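$ fold --in a.seq
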Amino acid sequence: MVYRILELKNLKTSFFTKAGEVEAVRGISFHVDKGEAIGIVGESGSGKSVTALSIMKLLQPPGKITGGQILFKNKNLVEIPNKEMRHIRGNEMSIIFQDPTMSLNPVFTVGNQIMEAILNHQKISKKEARAKAIEILRLAGIPSAEKRLNDYPHEFSGGMRQRVIIGMALSCEPDILIADEPTTALDTTIQAQILKLMRDLKNRWGTSIIFITHDLGVAADFCSRIIVMYDGLIMEEGPVKSIFFDSKHPYTRGLIESIPGVIQKGRKKRLVSINGISPDLFSSHVGCPFMPRCDFAMKICKEKQPPYFDAGEGHRSKCWLLHGEAPKKAPWVKRRCADGNR
């Protein structure tokens, strides 16, 4: 039986600035099953990280959740007090960020910081916490774990620091881990090692993972399902195979075609970029937000925001191209509407 551990229902998050309200997340809904790894992808500014911070309730002013529900084990996190959330955060839910130097205190040893995370959430002795910290470093692939426990963060390489952070995040065996671009600052070899580590630890403890990245290729390697975000909205969602080989949204297709080395019919396809720039944060949100950059835009795209259309097998897309019966293959042939409206 599949157990739904996390579900977002119409989540809305805004930043209230002197220039006005910035709607960073505009009513998104998705779920995560127990032991599942899902990917959230999109360009910078699409709302990926704000979604993660909203789930963990780590938003700082002027950011604020303005609507919707975050159901974790059927408990609405939006409504619970901060004291209860502090118990959940780090114990049942953990988050790791792109830059490990921002998560590790430079004046304390790595061992002290791992032990502190364990002691804050588990009723065990310092001796037991130390033994568990050593075990965590070993599981994270840190050589001479017992000796390295006494080292400071600056004595570790970038990849090793990220391993420490992942180990620390999983030290209390949380039900769900949010990884916010944890491999972006690492080279390709170290990136592959970190992904393998996360996969191994996920399989060991059955942890669900939300993997946030701008790299669709990395998400495809690690996740079973992908969510594509743009301008605070989910534009497309579906299984990895369906997203890659039968994507329904022009934005998703643009992200896929911008991946270097994509081979089609035995030949490398020329790298394609998405025209235009990300939308203005203070835009009116009339119509489809991707319309000004879309090669397939129609008149209705400018006038009305599309609903979600079901493309089958857990695949949905927020695009007017699917109005009516979804086509077997999306029409990826450049076209413009007859009256010239884009």
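$ fold --in b.seq
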Amino acid sequence: MTSPDIVHAAAVPTQQKRTSYRWVVMGLIFCVWAVACADRANFGIALPYMKKEYGISNTEAGLIVSLFSFAYGIVQIPVGLMYKRLSERTTGILFSVFMLLTSLFTGLMATTSSVFLLQAYRVGLGLSEGPLGIGCTNIINRWFPAEEKGTATGLWIAASKLGPLIVPTVCIVVIELWGWREIFYVFAIPGVFLAILWFFMVTNSPSQSRFCNEAERRYIMEEPAVASLAGSKPSQGAQVTAMPWLDAINRTRRVPRLETLRQVFTSWNILGVAIGYGCMIGITNVFMSWIPTYLVTVKGFASVKMGFLASAPFIGAVAGNMLGGVISDRLLGGRRKPMMMLGAAGSVVMLLLLIDAPDSAALLAGLLVVAGLMVGIGFAGYSAYPMGLATKSTYPAAFGIVNSVGQIGGACAPLAVGLLLDNYDWSAVFMYMVGTAALCLILLLSVVEPIAVTRNKE
């Protein structure tokens, strides 16, 4: 016969109030990624001043901008494999080290005396920042249950646009007070403090954290399979929200998890999404690096007004990133493709409208905000989509492929813009971006949507 004391002791864990430390972790991820993306975005504001000082052509400027993304993209797959194979404690330490290196190369940009050093430090920044993206998504995948991953990923992506959103204003103030070089000193400082905070506050999984109680760990870990074998039944207590009309367009399927590296590397679903991601990153990179030059040289805006307008696409993008993740989780039952396809289709429309953009600052700002909203609304899906296909073990490699191909594809855009501007005009630039958004939509139509299975809410 079981004593009442034993029964009471066994019941305590189930009655334990759940902590919410995962959202503290998410807050730190948000800050880290916002600062990291600000470190890459500040170059676009300094670019007109650099071109004047060093006599850089548009093509050379595009190459310098693209070198960051090439370096960032090249390290994605090796880093994804590294996160899979190294111990959890080691990966946590490496994350802080890479954050420190990101700050170091940001500060070094202020010391440049030649175009060669500009190129070298941009490569160093890309190689240092590359592991941070996979590190953040790896933590999200381990720290959040299936029904919260889209929201968490949307916040992470929103942070990537918050950096460029605040960059123009801060940069203009710094330039007015000191000069363009001091921009990089100012942006190097926050990353050092965040690297130290990360080291002491974030572990690679909830089971290692002293701030996360057992009830929260169970909530995070007790999730059903997101992608299951064709014809298999959902786990007990799970449900799939039926959306027949959307699933027909969306090509929703039950598919097996990608459990091996071979399956990951040969999956068209992963590769197709990765190439589409590259198309959309390319548009973001153009907004980040070339729009300030467009506003000054074509529209003739002074530096203060340019700073405001250069922020406009990222005001929309921040809203789009968060909306896309929340809608995907809460209204679409974990389906990632609809927001991704809406983003690509909406970008086509908005970029066509920007070809003959108005000279009015207010109207142009409105167009840029909506364009940023469309570009950003599907971004959370590109990171969350592999979570529905891969296991926790293979996810870093899967996202490494998506981010590697995406970043390398995106790296081509600033260089392409430089070449187009040296031979054509800005109409050709906007048509180029229209074409990449249309290609993204076609690629997304070719991949399947793994069925998301979520727990019943009590």
